[in-house]
Amino acid sequence: MILAISRFVAVSVAVFAGHAMSAECDNPTTLNFLLIPQSNADKGVSAMQPLLAELEKETGKKVKTNIPPSYGAVVESLLAESTDIAMLGPASFASAMSNGAAIQVFASYSAKAGPFQDEGPYYHSLLVVRNRSQFTSIEKLKGSTLSLVDPLSTSGSVIPRHLFSPMIGGSLEKYFGRIVYTGGHDKSAAAVLDGRADAAFVSTLLLSEFIREGKGIENDYRILWKSEPIPLDPFVYRTRLCAPIKEKIRKVFLTATENSHKATLQWLNASRIVAFSGENYRTISQIMQSLPK
């Protein structure tokens, strides 16, 4: 009788422990994958399909892709925990983390060299003007029209506001006569070419893509300022996802090669996807925390 009771208690404890463990993680039937609304995001949806199809096969779950209308909407989605996996910009990741999002970085990618882009998992913010314009120095830009991308764009707004502003002795608003947000690096690059903006802060990675797509040539632009290296876009997943799911996500992303996932890596202009962590974004996180709320 005592032995039977002991077995009952042991089984009950084991069942309770199992329920408690399962309650500590999420095991959704569908994995929601989010892309930041950068200039080539629509192409990214189709380019990512082979990799996401493999993720469906590996996890046994449907993967649904979404592109929010703005960087702010990206952060809101992460805070609401309605996104399971995402490719973010460094600043949108830092903003989400500073607001309490339960996410973890697991990967980034190593970019191939381009017209303005160095090879490796880093890029730069550039201040560019049209090569044949009168703007041959930063000083000559005072009172001109500046194009930014989005308030939460790392290279198209955040880095310039934090690292470039001290060079001109004040805010961008006080130095430039007018500031416009275009919503995309390609749109900012185009605005400089067609005269709607005198200068723009853009990403080396996305300006290189703009050139590769034949929308301009390298000699169209003059660089007046270049930032220190910035880590490339992080891939993140929700912290509360069950460990086996996170392990399978890492496996699928980190084993992608140019042979197995050519379209995905071509879209990223990358040689491979590499393991990364939140520690790689410490500097940008500190910058975001120092900015006025």
UniProtKB/TrEMBL annotation:
<keyword id="KW-0732">Signal</keyword>
<dbReference type="GO" id="GO:0043190">
    <property type="term" value="C:ATP-binding cassette (ABC) transporter complex"/>
</dbReference>
<dbReference type="InterPro" id="IPR005770">
    <property type="entry name" value="PhnD"/>
</dbReference>
<dbReference type="Pfam" id="PF12974">
    <property type="entry name" value="Phosphonate-bd"/>
</dbReference>
<protein>
    <submittedName>
        <fullName>Phosphonate transport system substrate-binding protein</fullName>
    </submittedName>
</protein>
<feature type="signal peptide">
    <location>
        <begin position="1"/>
        <end position="22"/>
    </location>
</feature>
<dbReference type="GO" id="GO:0055085">
    <property type="term" value="P:transmembrane transport"/>
</dbReference>
<comment type="similarity">
    <text>Belongs to the phosphate/phosphite/phosphonate binding protein family.</text>
</comment>
